[in-house]
Amino acid sequence: MKKSLLYIRVKNYALRCSKVGTLTSLTVCLIATNASANEGAAGNSFAKTSALKAFSLRAAIKISGVVTDEKGETLPGVSVKVKGSSSATVTDSNGKFTIAVPDENATLIFGYIGYTSKEVAVGNKSSLKISLQPDAKTLNDVVVVGYGTQTKAEFTGSASKVSGETLKDLPVQSFDQGLAGKATGVSIGQPNGVLNNAPVIRIRGINSISLSSYPLIVVDGIPINTGNSSGNAQVANNPLGDINPADIESVNVLKDAASTAIYGSRAAAGVILITTKSGKSGKPKVNYEGWTGITNAVRLPELLNAEQFMMIKNEATLNSKILSNNQNNAAVPSASFFPSYNADGSLVDTKWFDEVYQTGVSQNHSLNVSGGSETTKYYFSTNYSKQEGIIRTNEFTRKSARFNIDHKLTSFIKLTANINYNNSLNASPQTGSLEGNAFGLTAIGRLATLSAPNVPVMNADGTYNLSTTNTLGMGANTVSSNFYNPAALLAYNTYTSENDRIIGNFAVDVNLAKGLTYRLSYGVDRLRIENKSFESAVHGPGFANGGQATNNSVLIDNWNLTHTLNYATKLGDKNNITLLGGYDVQKFRNSMWGAQRTGLSDSFYDTFEGSFQNIVPGTTNNSRSEKAFASIFGRVSYDFDKKYFATINYRRDGNSALGTGKKYGNFGGVSGGWALSGEDFYKNSHLAEIMNSVKLRASWGRVGNGNLANNFGSLSLYTSSLYGTVPTFAFNQGGNPDLGWETSKQTNVGADIGFFKDRVTIDVTYYNNNVDGLILNVPQSPSKGIPGNAILQNVGAMYNRGFEFGISALVYQKGNFSWNTNFNYTHNKNMVTDLFGSGSEIVGATATSSETTNITRVGYPVGSLYGAVTNGVNPANGQRIFVNAAGQQVQYSQSIPTGGSRWTYLDGTAAPAISVKDYQILGNALPTFYGGFNNTFKYKSFDLGVNFTYSGGNYIQNGTKATWRDQRFWNNSTEVLTRWTTPGQVTDIPRVVLGDLLSNGSSFPISANVEKADFIRLQTASLGYRFNPAIFGKSGISSLRIYTQVFNAFLITKYSGQDPDISVNGNTNTTPGVDKNSVPQGRTFTFGMNIGF
Amino acid sequence: MNKINFKSYIFKLSCLTVGLGTLLPACKESELLNPVPETSVAAELVFSTPTRVLAQVNGMYKAMKSGDFLGGRNLMLNDIRGEEFLNRLQNIFTGYDAWNHTINSGSADALSSWSAAYAAINSANLVIDGLAANTTVVPAATSVQYVAEAKFVRALSYYALITLYGQPYVKDGGASPGIPLRLKGQMSTTDNDLARSTVAQVYTQILKDLNDAEAGLPLTYATPTLNTTRAHRNTAIALKTRVYLTMGMNANVITEAQKLVPAAAPYVAASGVANTMQPSILTIFSANYVSNESIFSLPMAALDFVSGQNSLGYNYNTNQEYSLNPAGIYGNATWPATDARKTLVKTNTNGVFLTKYQNTLFLDYIPVLRYSEVLLNYAEAAAKTGNLAKGIELLTAVRKRADASYTFPATAVATQAALVNTILVERRIEFLGEGLRSNDLLRNLLTIPAKGTSPAVAPGQTEYIFPIPNAEISSNKAL
Fold first, then answer.
1. For A782, which of B11, B46, B114 is closest by C-beta distance?
2. Do A469 and B320 touch (CB under 8 A)?
3. Could you give the ipTM of this predicted complex?
4. What is the tens place of the pLDDT at every residue in A417-465?
5. Rounded to a whole number, what is the distance in Å from the CA of A1010 to chain B's nearest CA?
6. How close, in Å, is residue B420 to chain A by CA atoms?
7. Residues A122-161: pLDDT tens digits?
8. Which of A858, A896, B73, B227 could cross-link to A900 by cystine, CB 3.0-4.6 Å?
């Protein structure tokens, strides 16, 4: 509010004064302007007193000085005013000022936007050094909204703001990973420790079933490309990693429909607005920000060593023999696992974790230069980041540069340009942790767990231990493995995904008349991705083809053109009206092409460009598609006397992906606010002494969702391929010409309350988001032969209801010590209220169709966990007990005598096998509460930050535990040492029987592996020290802070798996809460420094 | 000025102000919002030219060639259910569940086999419907041929389905519940519900389609490749011998077989393509995939092949997922080393592996119907109807082709029961890895023998056939 008011006043005075038309009077005007800003409401009366009065004051004492910010950097443009008089000045571009005061008793008031104003008694000093502290509240007063900004007072929707300051030093690849726990209502889940893996972002719950629940990300006004867009099965590629977190000024999250409706159909999952830094007028400032750190995997399970492995697996072999009634049959082995020995005679006991995991070393350097004059402001930055993951060969490198410039061309034309170029290269093995990869044969996380510990990594001759059939050599064991040697995979095969990206926008603002501004903005986001994989002939997937290399090139290109007209006016003294109208068109063009070469000519070559025998065009990686949005939008904001506020947003969107006749949708929202504390009766009440500010707000809106992954989803299509060598046409997509918008109607009621002069602020919000006309990929009877067995339709409904609470407080401040805290809590309830007819349900499978793990069913949250119900282990015989659909207990034995039944009732009679029809809902997979608890302590020059995140109320299918207990030839975790061995023994690990993948949940998910996911994590803890700038003398260094930080410090949870935040299915809506063979998260320690020049 | 005009005005203004280069072509909102896909073709256009119709006909065969269907996995599932192979790696992605008889309605193999077969059926139905609706795009005679080919594809696909998901016809004359019989092309959201037809009804439709196909298919095509990769008259007849044999209708087997097999050697089809056995069986698995013995095979080419875990070559040979069971036909005393067919194996420390599909680039054609099968179908029907002499004659012809030195012991062919059994053993040798074993057991109501750690499955057990997949159960309410 202050900023815009100031702006208007500056203009008013400038206009009035300019009529005088002399240089002197202009100076006076500037002084007057700044003074009035400081005086706030009193400024109006000041205008009536003569500005010339200030000019005529006689100077008794001259005081000079310099004003700096909290980091010791000089601040230009700070207003300096003599208390009780109208004498005032501003600091120059070096932060220096000179002012005349009447006598030693005078007091100076220093004021600067965004900083707490300070009063200083002059005393007998003639030179002053003033340091201003940032005013967190004032900074928060500006809310970035769609196509503009509003003051916090005006803003009647629901938004959360995160300062870029809190993100820039985090050891993450993209800023979104750092948002966890920082914004009320925003849930950030980091699926695993694979570098540049897009986190799962949910704003007020999951708001769609088939469409993306990823929020719209807008950088400096341009909606950019998001999601794992690489089309690369091995390497994660989060396009947000192309933005240097250090360039971010602020992140604003719009949550309710009233604020997001200006983005219409793009906004159903919320909007995240990123504002990048810009220069401030004054001398150039240079900042260096750098850190270096190490990362280790945490919470890896303890695995059986070689001796334990052989003991358990031979017991399983013998059990199999006995249970199949072959105890006297010499042809059936009693043991299959035998030791291998090293050259020195010691037992081979391989720690495969050591072969796969590493201590990652990372470094990040950012340098920025900013500054400007009255007419031109610039910000230039560059970044180099090189981060190693916890998995060997996983490495992320980013090189980027940004140039932001504002230029005031004439008194009525302003130009703005932002250009960001980025090159990022991510290298990774197939970790098995990205969506769809959980069961990959090359999935390195799983290989590290299940590989036999009693065989060596390498043979004595220095070659890798491989079988003749391209698998891990099994040494003296008499069983075969179908898995690769993970160390050899890492050595011989490489996978990379590299981005070259330009995000740029150019805007011109033209002040057409008083209060009326036209803005034309054009932006491009052009992302070129090159994915490369090389798989050698020696070991791995390339073996069968004699070595292979696949390259593909992906183009993700969009442009965005926006015209807006903004008009702000006042009717009378108290009616403020702002009008916004605009037209926006955005076009996306995606294409991908590539090929695979097989049959390496010579082992010398290790790239696609080398020599091969064959080349095959990529069948799944050649594609083209396009999509466009064309929209008109408008906003009316009105307030009366800064007490009553109302905003109306409207947008009409056209979306090319929808059916003919259904392309346009109308969206909008209304919101209102009442500043109760602005009322006289309130101001005069005793309550006002405690609760100094109270604002009530409410909104209702309707937004849409047409973010179809398939740009041509409404069309029925045929595609061509080959039958042998002749061309074919085949039906490949069942379309729906009536495909229209998903709409969600959102109600939002809340209050913002400040206590003790805003020392404590609270915001509370209730929301109700009803989504209907859900676009679902409605399953079609497979017997219809429709490709994919599904067609997109608008059916179904669900809601998210919840409550948000945030509190910020300056808990303690005395002397050199202060403690600021922020706590936020979100409760969300998701419920599907309708699908496509009675009894309809959507089954969610982990890793394409491999394992049914989730179900979306009316009356339950989206993607509830699904599987077979178990009831422990039968103490009599060590068999896993299942409960069938009829409620009967059924037990399973992998090995049985000829003619017997594997499935029996507890009395031993044959029972039908447990199958999908016996599956039940095993738990809600969506967190019902989450939030953060952030603390900053300061003592003298030290600062300590302690930030917790927490989440809970949901369950996880710990499918990784099934792998850890699988009784094939796989290694196990030490949990299996408590397996059932003797009648009467009570344990939760069934009797081990070789080949048994069913009893522990590897064949299908079981309730025994479902666990509560509640956790508290110490997300970051940092300790910093700020040097006194004085010690740097004239070296040019104006500030220096050094710090050390730990990221993902520890986890408090009862979850027995690696991490309850895990999600092997990434951002997929219908399969949340599944932990299956993912690698865990890392813990990172960093040391960093920020230097200002 | 109404809103639309205002908007287009704004739009033109945009084009003027920023209409540089790339933006100009897209400067029309209706064009922007109605992009035309560039790598797919709208369904309305596929019957617009003869070339496109022909491409759809090839598309039906291509659908059958899916790796989930006859291009690989269907054959493998049918073989590994039987006793000839041992699973080496316990990998459910390469059929461990099917080998182990632990397929349930939620298993991936239960769904993928079902979906892939019905996708082929739908492609055939769409061709039949489309040609009926677009009568002028190709000449009438061509249209008749294409419909006949579609019916062949539909019949073969239904046969593959009913033998995997339906109780054997011979169990109760087809009275058991079968599978949904879809005869109309499906492209939209309607018609999800369709009740199961009985096994008999499905067979009736298969035979009707094959009879129609026989009438409409060409006698021959222009090239050996087409004679092998697309259905001609003899293809339909050959398939009928298999269908009737499965139904236990031996007289009909003989009637159909006699259309292809003359009364006496040399056994060469008298009309249409001169289908006959090649002198060496090795020819058809590597040297010449399109000989006259290969009545119907699915072609592979450098730009169109099935690889990975659906590929027979990958599973049997490259990755050695399944070794030959020493207690199965490989160890059978009646299959001596002198037999040429026994050279289609390799032995290493992991066991003995089938090398019928040995092309390292997975370019081996997948055999679906071979002339030797017609001979053995005929032989079995003859034996079962009491014509032992004919049975022995045809059986011997097949054996002698691979092992000229071999003479069947008298006991092996002396009685009807012994002869039928010997013919079944011969089929196990001749068609090892060609996907016939499961049905040979089921159509004779035999117990699926135990192998390795996988137990035996008797005809009454639910595991005897595949369950209808869960996805069908949940979306097809009429089931």
1. B114
2. yes
3. 0.92
4. 999 999 999 999 998 888 888 888 889 999 999 999 999 999 999 999 9
5. 19
6. 27
7. 888 888 888 887 765 544 577 788 888 888 777 888 888 8
8. A896
